Amino acid sequence: MVKFYDFYTQHTKLQPLAGEISWSNNIIILEKCNDLSQIEYYLKLSKKLWLSKRVLQNKIESNDFEQRAIDNKHHNLDLTLSESYAQLVNHTIKDSYVFDFLDLWDVYREQELEQWLIQHLKKFILELGIGFAYVGNQYNLILQWDDYFLDMLFYHTKLKCYIVIELKIGKFMPEYAGKLNFYISLVDDQIKDASDQATIWLLICKEKDDKVVEYALRWQSQPMVVSQYSFEWLPSELQQNLPTEDMIKRFLDNF
Questions:
Q1: Which end of the chain is more exposed for a tag (fewer CB within 10 A), N or C?
Q2: Residue ranges per domain, the chain?
Q3: Is 123 exposed, middle or buried (0-12, 13-18, 19+ CB in 10 A)?
Q4: How crowded is the C-beta side of 218, counted as CA atoms within 13 Å?
Q5: Which residues pair with 137 in a beta bridge?
């Protein structure tokens, strides 16, 4: 409490922000953040997204502030949404997701990845973040007697919009953007209510080049985000120091 008093006595412009979030979040921010810009960022983020203690802690530990500071154009939100709403969406949708709760083999199909995520839906939603509500997978839309299927459809309770999630097990390709622009138009005409915000397309792929993404999304009329996924928390240099499955098995056999 002394640290809290001393800090906000020196930085009076941040006092209103501190007063609008929980005491627990204030403690986490002051304990884990040293840079003034970083503190201001998490204060504003806590207020905008109503972050719980756990979610805030995860964002700080995953270097959310540092990642946002990098100018990587993996979306076209600033070109398709108002400035304030684009910032809110950008804070909500992550650049990368970790599916460490899946136990997939080296070779798998997109349908298998989707099925595994559905089977672990609770953990998948926790990884997506607060506010995601599941609507359905392989969601059927019909136009001129033809069927079209969305990989996954979510509604975000804080953003007040539908989010279409497309899964790709390979590298992002520019032609994906045109196809999903079409799908979002279908969602807007057949599902979206007049009170809903603009539908957002989120493509989650295994690999992406941000420069390719930037060029592919630049002239698309719908808000789109391209993120990537991995199965492991640890970087490769740390994984090399961990024992393999065979090493653990041999150890247990000899124990």
A1: C
A2: 2-68, 72-233
A3: middle
A4: 6
A5: 152
Could you identify the residue written with the tokens 């997506």?
Answer: 128
Over its length of 255 residues, how does the chain's per-residue pLDDT go in tens digits? 888 888 888 888 888 888 888 999 999 999 888 888 888 888 888 887 777 888 888 888 877 776 665 445 688 888 889 888 888 898 889 888 988 888 776 778 899 999 999 999 999 999 998 899 999 999 999 998 899 999 999 999 999 999 999 999 999 999 998 888 888 889 999 999 999 999 999 999 999 988 899 888 888 888 999 999 988 654 555 555 656 666 666 666 665
Residues pairing with 150 in the sheet: 139
- The structure tokens listed for 8 are 């906000």
Distance CA 32, CA 132 (A): 27
Amino acid type, 128: L
This prediction's pTM: 0.68
User: Strands 146-156, 224-230: parallel, antiparallel or unpaired by DSSP?
Assistant: unpaired
CATH number of the domain located at residue range(s) 72-233 in this protein: 3.40.1350.10
Phi, psi of 17 (to 5 degrees): -65, -45
Q: How far apart are CA 229 and CA 56, in angstroms?
A: 21
Question: Which residues are CB-neighbours of 102 under 8 A, at least 6 positions away?
Answer: 113, 116, 117, 120, 231
- Look at the block and give the residue holding tokens 């993404």: 213
